[in-house]
Amino acid sequence: MSEDRLPGFATLAVHAGAQPDPTTGARITPIYQTSSFVFENVDHAASLFGLQAFGNIYTRITNPTTAVLEERVAALEGGTAALAVASGHAAQLLVFHTLLQPGDEFIASTKLYGGSINQFNHSFKSFGWNVVWADPDDIASFERAITPKTKAIFIESIANPGGIVVDIAAIAAVAKRAGVPLIVDNTLATPYLCKPFEHGADIVVHSLTKFLGGHGNSMGGVIVDGGRFNWTREARYPKLSQPLAEYNGIVLAETFGNFAFAIACRVLGLRDLGPAISPQNSFLILTGIETLPLRMQRHSDNARAVAEHLIDHPAVAWVSYAGLPGDRYHNLARRYVPKGAGAVLTFGLKGGYDAGVKVVSTVKLFSHLANIGDTRSLIIHPASTTHRQLSDSQKVLAGAGPDVVRLSIGIEDKEDIIADLDQALAAT
Ligand SMILES: *Cc1c(COP(=O)(O)O)cnc(C)c1O
């Protein structure tokens, strides 16, 4: 790469963070399958433990395979540093552990992955971290939710399910006025379709399990530091702005500047809570990321073709996909995800609950399971699976009414995907 041009996205997806292994010449990043690393001498060990030198101690905190993954995702998102962990939920746990004290509040979008809604409503409450919900279709609801205890705002770029696109810049403006960071879960869009830092986000999180890994074969999560937030304001974020006795009194925001947040999540959160990613999974996810731009374009193009087909189908009542020109979120999609609106969409069956059960039982190419972001096309009928414990009215509020089917469109031939849906719809 010549020095006078910055590499493009596809080049970064293949190369960022990686170089041939210095000891063996291995071209592909090796799986450093080791729990611990030998110190050069006692002084070296002391400087590693005191955060005066960068280096590996123990795979719970850093690992060379995982380090390549972290650098690659940071480069793709345009962040200053990243921390990879065991799952998307672990990433969210460490972000909030770093930002919140017991009794603090954060504002979260009502349009979120169901697992995040559970995590925030139940487990986070038991830590004394209190979620306040706001509706991304009503930006003023975020403004109204701000209190002196608010420490962060959390949204998804493309929200799961239903392919809802959120006005990131408008919510970033609310966060900026309140002096709190905006966290964006960019799992459904990936940095290929949307880069939240360009729209004012301060922290990006992902479930690497989904499109970044992309092959349905490994769990992972990542936190990306945007590097622009001022953590020292009014001592609101003590883990970043107060001296740490356990590290000789250093102040992370002063010592680590524009990547202090990623460091704090690692040397406090990951160190103490422990959800480390395995080097094997980092390797698989790194391999997946090499083809991210090719896969995401294909996922989006296929999903749009499926949405256009379904909207004219006699068994289908409605289709929710921001990539469709008539969709309520299409203008936001054109602004935030101009290359395509991603792989996930929902549609409603005229035949209601029974038709939903019939469709998921009759598909052959689609897999009936609870995941998204695989190369394979996936289908689920939320009312009979993920949302079955809710009352009928709760189901409708969650976008999981009896008629709703969710698809995660794969990278197979679109003609085969559509033919499979057609034969299943014919059975309703
Ligand atoms: C799956 C998912 C998560 C949680 O990630 P895990 O890797 O399953 O822990 C978070 N957010 C979104 C949008 C997801 O789809």
UniProtKB/TrEMBL annotation:
CDD domains: CGS_like
Coiled coil: none
Enzyme Commission number, as recorded: 2.5.1.49
A GO molecular function held by the record: cysteine synthase activity
Keywords for the protein's UniProt record, in alphabetical order: Pyridoxal phosphate, Transferase
Names of the cofactor(s): pyridoxal 5'-phosphate
GO biological process terms held by the UniProt record: cysteine biosynthetic process from serine; L-homocysteine biosynthetic process; transsulfuration
PROSITE patterns recorded: CYS_MET_METAB_PP
GO cellular component, one term: cytoplasm
Residues with PTM N6-(pyridoxal phosphate)lysine: 210
SUPFAM superfamilies: PLP-dependent transferases
Transmembrane segments: none
Protein family per UniProt: Belongs to the trans-sulfuration enzymes family.
Protein name: O-acetylhomoserine aminocarboxypropyltransferase
Record organism: Kaistia nematophila
